[in-house]
Amino acid sequence: LWTPLVLALGIMAALGSFPAGAGWRVAGFALAALLYLAFWAVAAVAGSVLARTPATAFAGLVGLWLLLAIAVPKVAVAAAAARYPVAPPTVLGQRYQTLLKQAQDQYVLDLAAYKKDHPEPGPRDFAQLRLGYFSGYFAAIDEARAPHLRALDARQRALDEAAAFSPAFDFQLIAATLAGTDGKRHRAFIAAADAYARELRLW
């Protein structure tokens, strides 16, 4: 449980610098880990008090752990995936390639039609045509991506709700949020990368 924390502290110590906000993230992870351990400690004490024999207490605790730490997360993930299906990356990539090909073909047709009416187009004319080409392509990409993003958001909300029934699952989501690897942070990164790619192409 403490391995990720120790590794993170060791890496930051080796680099000789701590990123901004690293302190409160480490403290938050430590607090979440302590609360998680405290839950199982309370469950173990309650089991030993309520059970008649140590074997019964141990079996009950193992069963509770299997239910909350393994069964509930697996069922939650499977249910969210079944209720909110998303296309695999390969299918999305093929769809994007098709949209790109369509946009390129449309650009060729628009350029041919423009040259027909303007025998000697200038650099500004080409820039306007190219801007229209990229604008249409990006609009098509956004339209094709919208259902995928809505499904991801709905799936993440379902998993957040399911975390209330599993301390292990809840701890996993909290750790991912503190580490910056949660779904919301991933979406923000993808949006920033996409905005940069669009700006670079338009430039």
Please explain how this structure is put together.
The chain is 86% helix and 0% strand. Helix 5 packs antiparallel against helix 7 (183-202). With 203 residues, it is mainly α. The protein contains seven helices and no strands. The chain is elongated. The chain has helices at 3-15, 22-50, 54-83, 89-117, 123-162, 167-179, 183-202. The model has no long low-confidence stretch (mean pLDDT 81).
The separation of the N and C termini measures: 47 Å
- Major beta sheet, specifics? none
Give helix and strand order, one letter per element, not per position: HHHHHHH
Structural class category: mainly alpha
Count of runs of 4 or more consecutive helical residues: 7
Instruction: Give the number of DSSP strands.
Output: 0
Beta-strand level of the residues, as a percent range?
Answer: under 5%
Report Rg: 26 Å
Mean pLDDT comes to: 81
Shape: elongated
Which spans of ≥5 residues are poorly predicted at pLDDT below 50? Answer: none
User: Residue share in helices?
Assistant: over 70%
